[in-house]
Design a protein that fits this description.
heterodimer, A: MetI-like fold, 2 domains, B: alpha/beta, D-Maltodextrin-Binding Protein, domain 2, 21 helices
C-alpha cells in the first residue's frame, strides 16, 4: 500500500519535471493564450503607470492639461503638510511594526504553551484581522470619544482621567497606531506561532536536561530560531505602515489640522481638492520612496536567507 | 410553457431597464424624463423632492427625477467627472462662486442669460454664476448669513446686549464664562465649521480695504500681510487663547453644537444660518430662543454681515432636444414665486431669497428675522469666495489648527496664502504662475 503511494508520487514528480523541461523549451500554450491577460494588465496597470509619470509633469484638470516640467514636484516638496506627513508615516510604520513584533511574539509564546482553550484564544487574537478596516476605524472613533467614549468612561471608573485620544494633537497619531496594532497583531501572532511550532522539540528537551530556566530557553532557543518569522513580520508591517491610509482617514482624516497626516492622506487631499497634477506627482514620489525602501530590504534579507 | 412566459417577462424587464438608463436621450411614451442631481444634505433632498413633485403635478408631460450625490470634495469630483464624460444629469444643483468657476462653464454648461426670469434675479447673485460675460445658473434656495447664532434666553438672563464691536463681543464672552456658560461653541469634528470666524469676518476686511478681493485674485494682496485680513485669523486665536470655547470643541459635531446652543449650554455659535433648518428640526421648542448677529469688527459704524449666496441650478451641454426644453422649464419653475413657496413650506429657510417677489413668511425663526436689517440697510458683503475664484481647500484644516492652539494666527494665514496659490495655478489665473 505504502509503496504504491510512493510510486505514484514519484511518477507525479517525474511528469511535473517533464512538463517543466518542455515548458522551458517551448510554451505549452500558443502565445495568443496570454493575450487577454496581457491586455488587461497593459490597459489597467502598465499604461496608467507610464501615463502617470507623464501627467505628474503637467497641471491637469479632467478637461485639459498643461506641461509644467518639475513644478509639481517642487510644489509637493514645499508642502508644509508633507514634512509632517513624512515624519508621521515613519513614526507610524516604526511604532506599529515594533509593537507587532513584541506583542506578536509574546502572544505566540503564550498561545503555543499548554493553556486552556488555546484554539479559541488563537481565533480571538486573529479575529480583528478579518474585520473591515473602515468598520474598525469608525468603531474606535466612537470608543475613543473623550467625553462619551467607552474607553474614557472605564478609565474614569478607575479614577484615571483619560486623554482626548483622537483630538489631542500629541496623541492622535499614536492612538491610530495602537488601533492598527490591535487590528494587525493577529497576523504577526500567527506567523510567530508557525515559527515557534517548527522549532524541533529536541532543543527544548536538551536545554531542560542542562537545567535551563524557561526564560533562558526563550532567550536562547525561541528568539534566535524564530528569526525568519521576525523578518516576515517586520517587512509586512513596515510596508503596511508606509502605505497606511484607510485607518488614518476613517479615524482622524489627518486631523486635528494636519497633525496625524501621513503621505497617503496628503496625496489624497491634493486629489480631493482637484490638484490632480500635484497628487499624481505625490503618487510618483510615494512609489519611488516605497521602492527605495523595500527593494534594498528585500535584496538584503533574501541574501541573508541564501547565506543561512 | 410557464418557463417561456417567465423568460419573456424577464426579457421585457431588461428592455425596460435599458430604456431608462442614464445615457438615454429619447423620451418614452408618457413624456420626457428629466434627471436632477443634488447633494445628499437632508434639507436639500427634501426641497428638491418637493420641487420635483410640485413641478410634475403641473406638467403632466414631464417627469423630474431627483438623484443624489455626496457632499464636499467627493461630490465635487463626481460633478466634474460626470461633466467631463458627458454623463451629467439633465439638471444639477451646485455651488455658485469659486466652485462654479472650477467647472469650466463655457465648455460644459448651457448659458441661461436669455431666460425671462433673469430680470427678477439679484444682481450680486448673478455675478457669482457668470463666466466670460454669460450667466449660467439660476439660484436654488435662500442666501444665508455667516455670523453668530446666540441664545437670547441666556442673554436676557445675564442682561447682555448684542455686541457691535469685537471688544464688546469679548466682554460678553468674559461674563458668560464667569456665569458658567460656554461662551463660543465650536464643533471641529465637522471641520468646515471651524472656518466661519475667518470667512464670516470678510465684511470687516472689505470695510477696511474695499479692493482686497480684487487684489487677492490678482496675487497682489495676501492674508498674512494685509492687517485687516490677518485680523480674521487672530480673532479665531483670541477665542482659543482666552479659553472661551466649549471644553469638548475638538470632538463635537455640528448637530451636537446646535443642540448645545439651543439648550443654553453655549451662548454663541459662529456658523452659517442654513444650520437653522437642522436646529429647528431637532429643537422645535427652543428655536425661538435663538437669535443672530453678524461677526463684529473693530469699528461699530461699519458693523455688517457677510453673506453666502445660494447655490444654483445648472444645465450641462449634454442635455439636448426635448430634455433641454423640459430642463429649462423646470429651472424656470424652481425660481418662480411658486418654487420659492414650495421651498419655504418644506424647510426653514436660512435667510432671504435673491429672487424678486419671493418674500419670507412672518413665521420664520427670529434668527432669520435678525438678518433682515443687514439687507435693508445694505450693511452686507458677499463672502470672499463669491468675489474671487480663489479659495484654498486646506483652510478648514488650518483653522482647526489655529482654533485649537496648534498653530499661531500669523503662521496659519501664511500657510493659507500658500494653499491659495495652488488653487489659482490650477485655475490658470493670470499673475500666479
Amino acid at each position: 500500500m505504502t509503496s504504491t503511494v510512493e510510486d505514484r508520487r514519484a511518477e507525479t514528480r517525474g511528469t511535473a519535471a517533464a512538463i517543466g523541461r518542455r515548458a522551458r523549451a517551448r510554451s505549452a500554450y500558443p502565445y495568443w493564450f496570454y493575450l487577454p491577460a496581457a491586455i488587461v494588465y497593459g490597459v489597467l496597470f502598465i499604461v496608467p503607470t507610464f501615463a502617470s509619470f507623464y501627467f505628474s509633469l503637467t497641471r491637469w484638470t479632467i478637461f485639459d492639461y498643461k506641461f509644467i516640467g518639475l513644478d509639481n514636484f517642487i510644489q509637493f516638496f514645499q508642502e508644509p503638510a508633507l514634512v509632517k506627513g513624512f515624519t508621521n508615516t515613519i513614526i507610524y510604520a516604526v511604532v506599529t511594526s515594533g509593537l507587532k513584533v513584541v506583542l506578536g511574539l509574546l502572544l505566540a509564546v503564550l498561545l503555543t504553551s499548554r493553556i486552556v482553550a488555546r484554539g479559541y484564544l488563537r481565533s480571538v487574537v486573529f479575529f480583528p484581522v478579518l474585520v473591515s478596516t473602515i468598520g474598525v476605524g469608525i468603531t474606535f472613533t466612537v470608543l475613543m470619544n473623550p467625553q462619551h467614549g467607552l474607553i474614557n468612561r472605564w478609565l474614569a471608573v478607575v479614577g484615571v482621567d483619560g486623554p482626548a485620544w483622537l483630538t489631542d494633537p500629541s496623541y492622535a497619531l499614536l492612538s491610530v497606531a495602537l488601533v492598527a496594532v490591535w487590528k494587525g497583531v493577529g497576523l504577526a501572532t500567527i506567523i510567530y506561532i508557525a515559527g515557534i511550532v517548527s522549532i524541533p522539540q529536541d532543543y527544548f528537551e536538551a536545554a531542560r536536561v542542562d537545567g535551563a530556566s524557561s526564560f533562558q530557553s526563550f532567550r536562547h532557543i525561541v528568539l534566535p530560531l524564530a528569526r525568519p518569522a521576525t523578518v516576515t513580520v517586520v517587512i509586512l508591517s513596515l510596508i503596511g505602515g508606509l502605505r497606511s491610509f484607510d485607518l488614518v482617514w476613517s479615524m482622524t482624516r489627518g486631523g486635528p489640522g494636519f497633525t496625524s497626516d501621513v503621505i497617503a492622506s496628503v496625496i489624497y487631499k491634493q486629489y480631493q481638492a482637484g490638484f490632480y497634477g500635484l497628487s499624481t506627482a505625490g503618487n510618483v514620489v510615494l512609489f519611488l520612496v516605497v521602492t527605495a525602501i523595500v527593494v534594498p530590504l528585500f535584496w538584503f534579507l533574501s541574501r541573508r536567507e541564501v547565506e543561512q | 410553457m410557464h418557463r417561456r412566459a417567465a423568460l419573456a417577462v424577464a426579457a421585457a424587464g431588461l428592455l425596460a431597464l435599458g430604456a431608462c438608463s442614464a445615457g438615454d436621450l429619447g423620451s418614452s411614451d408618457d413624456g420626457t424624463t428629466v434627471s436632477f442631481l443634488v447633494d445628499n444634505e437632508p434639507s436639500t433632498v427634501k426641497n428638491s423632492e418637493a420641487l420635483a413633485k410640485a413641478f410634475n403635478a403641473k406638467n403632466p408631460g414631464i417627469k423630474v427625477k431627483v438623484e443624489t450625490r455626496p457632499q464636499g470634495g467627493e461630490g465635487d469630483n463626481i460633478v466634474k467627472t460626470r461633466l467631463a464624460t458627458g454623463d451629467m444629469a439633465n439638471v444639477f444643483a451646485y455651488n455658485s462662486g469659486s466652485l462654479f468657476q472650477a467647472l469650466k462653464p463655457e465648455q460644459n454648461l448651457v448659458a441661461l442669460d436669455d431666460q425671462a426670469y433673469q430680470s427678477t434675479i439679484d444682481q450680486v447673485f448673478k455675478t457669482t454664476v457668470t463666466s466670460g460675460g454669460k450667466v449660467y445658473g439660476a439660484p436654488y434656495g435662500a442666501a444665508v448669513g455667516g455670523g453668530i447664532l446666540y441664545n437670547k434666553a441666556v442673554y436676557s438672563r445675564l442682561g447682555l446686549q448684542v455686541p457691535k464691536t469685537w471688544a464688546e463681543f469679548m466682554a460678553n464672552n468674559a461674563k458668560l464664562k464667569a456665569a458658567g456658560v460656554a461662551p463660543v461653541v465650536q464643533t471641529y469634528q465637522d471641520t468646515w465649521t471651524s472656518q466661519v470666524i475667518v470667512l464670516g469676518d470678510f465684511h470687516n476686511v472689505a470695510a477696511a480695504q474695499p479692493d482686497f478681493a480684487d487684489k487677492f485674485t490678482k496675487n497682489q494682496a495676501k492674508f498674512a500681510t494685509t492687517p485687516a485680513a490677518l485680523r480674521s485669523f487672530q480673532r479665531l486665536q483670541e477665542i482659543h487663547d482666552a479659553g472661551y470655547q466649549n471644553s469638548d470643541f475638538a470632538s463635537l459635531k455640528l448637530e451636537q453644537g446646535l443642540k448645545m446652543l439651543a439648550e443654553g449650554g453655549g451662548a454663541h455659535f459662529p456658523i452659517l444660518t442654513f444650520a437653522l433648518a437642522t436646529l429647528a428640526a431637532n429643537n422645535p421648542d427652543q428655536v425661538k430662543d435663538v437669535g443672530f448677529f453678524a461677526l463684529p469688527g473693530d469699528d461699530a459704524d461699519k458693523f455688517g454681515l457677510t453673506v453666502w449666496e445660494p447655490g444654483a441650478f445648472y444645465i450641462p451641454k449634454s442635455t439636448t432636444g426635448a430634455k433641454l426644453d423640459a430642463a429649462k422649464k423646470f429651472v424656470a419653475f424652481a425660481v418662480s414665486k411658486e418654487g420659492c413657496d414650495t421651498i419655504i413650506k418644506t424647510t426653514t429657510p436660512g435667510g432671504p431669497f435673491v429672487i424678486k417677489g419671493c418674500t419670507l413668511p412672518d413665521n420664520v425663526p427670529p434668527a432669520v428675522k435678525d438678518m433682515q436689517p443687514y439687507f435693508d440697510s445694505g450693511a452686507n458683503s458677499p463672502a470672499l469666495e463669491f468675489l474671487s475664484p480663489v479659495k484654498g481647500p486646506a483652510l478648514e484644516q488650518i483653522t482647526v489648527e489655529v482654533g485649537s492652539g496648534i498653530r499661531k494666527a500669523a503662521d496659519g494665514a501664511a500657510l493659507y496664502d500658500q494653499d491659495v496659490k495652488k488653487q489659482a495655478q490650477q485655475l490658470g489665473l493670470p499673475g500666479w504662475s
